[in-house]
Amino acid sequence: MKTLKYILIAVGVSILSFNCSSDDDNMTIDTTEPDFSGTYMQADQMGRPAINTVFVSPSAKDQFNVTTPSNQAAAFQSMFQTNLEALSPAYAEEGDTNALGLDAVTFTGLLATDVLTVSLDGPTTFYDGTNVLTGRALTDDVITVELLLIFGGEDFTENPGLSNDNVDANDKAFLTSFPYLASAW
Fold first, then answer.
1. What is the pTM of this model?
2. pLDDT tens digits, one per residue of 101-132
3. CA dist list (Å): 46 to 55, 108, 114, 183
4. d(Cα 171, Cα 174) in Å, to the nearest integer?
5. At how many degrees (to 10) do helices 69-87 and 104-112 cross?
6. Which residues, 6+ apart, have CB-to-CB distance to 153 below 8 Å?
């Protein structure tokens, strides 16, 4: 009988201690829309991150990031040109061009405008030998193309040690349906 008494006490304490509450009955759900009023400021832009990392001087990063792309070439082309000519021996001589036939002034004017262009009626590619900056396909070797245009000279043969990242494929195949990118390791 004594054992039954202890069991009943234990069951009673358990019921009192571990019961369900209905505290979710008092929960309020906020149905208001987000508040977008106020002043917002762009803090960063990176349409072509590798280019911007290399050619925007550290002291100008904040200013570059808040400059409207339509104003970037006028504001930053000369900085890009100075940094390109200091970096690449392919532009050491007056009149040197890259494989696109662009001299340092023209090429850096293009680079300084931080936008990704997209062709609506042709191939989408960063560079396929014919089409240039018409978008970016997942399979485009963007870094090698950038290195070739920066260091490769008129026919991609100058500075071969600087003109290829030597990463020729992904470690995993792209998916055949959205989101197309392979899952992380």
1. 0.71
2. 999 999 999 999 998 888 899 888 888 888 88
3. 12, 16, 7, 24
4. 10
5. 130
6. 90, 96, 97, 98, 99, 159
72 pLDDT more than 60 = yes
Residue linked to tokens 């792309």: 69
The whole-angstrom separation of Cα 116 and Cα 135 is 6
Q: Helix or strand or coil: residue 97?
A: strand
Share of the chain above pLDDT 90, in %: 41
| Residue whose C-alpha is closest to residue 101's, from 132, 70, 126, 141 | 132
Query: In Å, how far from its chain's centre is CA 183?
Result: 18
| Integer-rounded Cα radius of gyration of the chain | 30
What DSSP letter does each residue of 69-99 carry, written as one string? Answer: HHHHHHHHHHHHHHHHHHH-GGG-STT-B-T
Is 83 in contact with 91 (CB distance < 8 Å)? Answer: no
Structure tokens that stand for 83 in this block? 């940094």
The residue type found at 171 is D
8-state DSSP, 127: B
Which residue type occupies 159? N
Number of neighbours of residue 15 by Cβ within 10 angstroms? 9
